[in-house]
Structures are given as structure tokens and as C-alpha cells.
Here is the input.
Amino acid sequence: MSKNATDLTPPSAPSARARGLSDPPVVAGRRAIPARRPATSVRLAREAQQQRLWYFGLFGVIGLSVLALLGGALWQYVIYPAQPVATVNNQAIRTDTFNRYQKFQQALLNNQSNQLLQEQAQLQANTKNAAANTQILQQLQQQQQTVSGNLQNVPAYTLSQMEQALELQQAAGKTGTQATPAQLDAQMTTLKKQAGYNSLISSTGVQDADVRTYFATPAVVQQNVTKHYQGTVLATQPQAKARHILVAAKDKALADNLATAIKSNNGATFGALAQRYSIDNGGVAPTPPTTTKGQTAQQKQQALTQYKQQLAQYKQGQKQTSAFNGGWLRDPSQPFVANQPSWLTSQTQFVPEVLNAILAMKPNEVRVVKSQYGYHVIQVTARGAHTLSKTERNTLLQQNGQKGYQTWFQTATDPAKNKISPSNPYAQFPAATPAGQ
Here is the structure.
């Protein structure tokens, strides 16, 4: 075959068919026309592409799921625990610490409640000393009510205690009475020696750092502040003997007239005036029982018996009042002696306004002093000096320290002086909020 313009096959090259290949593309005007791909190849290519897209989608879903899990774990274990549940003057209380400390406080409250119930049961079983135990039993019942109220809203109670702990720490730093590391170490050692401490820690999950900050620190601060305000107590204290006539707050004119009369006769008629006018006479006598319709004879007898007992107690108490004992005032801690005064000192548990006046007055001086009970016409009859024993001196130091701490505490926790956010734990956690939230 002779060459023509369209024959580009080299002479020495075998034909495609001779090499076992399919027919070469037909060349027309130097533009190759591709051969049609078999249907099977097209289908396989399409399936491969779909498979690749499916894998891409699957890996995308898996990736998003992993990211979501990582984000959730990051929030749950890193971000959320570090969120402040409240701040006290910009000092944060972390959520994880708050949640742990709730369990600790709930356990403490339960222990307190059980102990109070046991003590009440023991007192109630002691029928021989029922009268003497009445006041103690009432105090225990009041404490029980307080603890029960706190158990009804553990989250709010816990947060209020944590906020208060931070307030005390911050205020102590301003007065140089903050807890030192050595004091906290000693306090924690003491706590760990107490029975049940380790089981309390393990059962609640609270950490030593939590207990150190919110439980041990306030206790140490109280000790430091109390000692700070003890001041000094002189070894010798003034003492005095005095008598008074108490009249109602509406009878100021009567008090002034009595004071004038006592001054004019140098107290010669003090006892008689006290018995006549003083309302420090045991109070109002019990009222006799009245008969009501339908009351049985047994009920009448019970009411009469009760009245006689009350009247006997009233008369017995009346015999020891100042009005029936020359108006003499006595230290309630001292044995009673009819018509005799006792020395009054700064340790005497007495009406503050009256005691302060007595210890400042001169012998035979007469003053009219007002208290919550009315007007007191007071006359001091003797003054002296009392040398304190070691026990008495320590008692006075403790009293000074406790009084100073109470005043400091009110200032340290004053809402107007502290920025707490949110401001009210009991609004932040309503009563229905379960513990651990």
C-alpha cells in the first residue's frame, strides 16, 4: 500500500491488531476519536466514587462524634468544675469544691442530729432530775430544730458556710489574725485524730484541702481573733454591795421621788420602800382555776392541785427576791442568805447597765438607772477590792475575747462591706434543690 496523507504509522512498526491490541483510534484530520469505554468500566468507576464518598461521610461523622465527646469531656471534667458557683470579694468558690463539700456538710449535720437526739433521749429518761434538766432539754431541742432546718436545704447552707469562711479569712488578714500554715497543720492533725474522720473523708469524697480552707481555717481564725481581743485583766478588780428598787418604765417620776426620799434619810427606809414599790418581787401570782361547764370532778381536782403547786413555787421564789430582802442585790452564783447582800464584781452575771453603775458608784451614792426591765433606784452601801484567782482571771480574759470576737464577726460578715455574687445562697438554691447540685 502506498503512503498517503492520513497514514502516520511508521513502516517498521507492527500494526496494533498484529500486537494483539484493539483497533487504534481512527485519525481524521489529526483529531483522535476515543474508543467507547465498556459499560462495565463505567459502572465500576461510579461505584468506586460512591464508595469513596461513603468513606468520607463515615469518617466525617466519626470525627464529629469524637470532637463532641472530647468537648463534652472537656466541659464536664475541666471547664464546668472550674466554674465559680459564687464569689466573695472576687475570690471564687469552684463548683467541684462546692459539690464535694456539700456531702461533707450533710454528713456532719446528720451526725449532729443523731447526737442531739441521743442526748435528749437520755435526759428524758432521767425522770428523777426532770426539773433540773428542763432548761438543758429545751436548749437541745432548739439546736435540733436548727440542724433539721439546715438539712432541709443542704446546698444553700453549705454555700453560706463557705462564703462565711472566706469572709472571715479576708477580714482576719486585715487585722493580722489570719491562720498561719503551722496553725492549720496543727488543726488538721487534731481533726484527723478524731474518731470517724477518715471514714467521713472517704465516704464523702471531700479533699483535705477543702476541709483545710472551709472548716479548719475559720476555727483557727476564731481562736486568733478571740485571743487578740482578750486584752489585759488587772489582778485586782473593784467590788461593791448594793440594793435597788425596780419600778416600771412608765414610772420614771416615781423612781425620781424614791431616790430623793432615800437620799434625805440616808436609806433608812430603803427596805420598806423596796417591799412596797419594787416590782422585783417574783412577778404576778398564779391565778386560781375557774370552773368550766362540763368539767368533771377529776379535772377540777387536777386543776386545783396544779394551782397549789404553782402558788407554792411562786411563794418560795418570792422569798428570795430583792423586794422581800431589803432590796439587796446578790450574785446569783452565790448561796442565798436572807436579808444579806453579796459582793458584786465584774464577773457577776447581772443586768449590764445596773452592774456598770454599781461598780462605778461611791458608798451611799444613789442613782436612777434605766434598763430593759424599767428604772432601778440604786444605792451602793460598800466598796472593796477583789483579788482575782487564776480561774477568775482566765474567765475574764475569755469573756473579753468572746465579746470582742462577736463584735468583729458582725463586722467581718457585714453584707454592706462584702461583695458576694450571687448575693443570697437561699435564693440561688431554693429549698427543693437536692444536695450535690
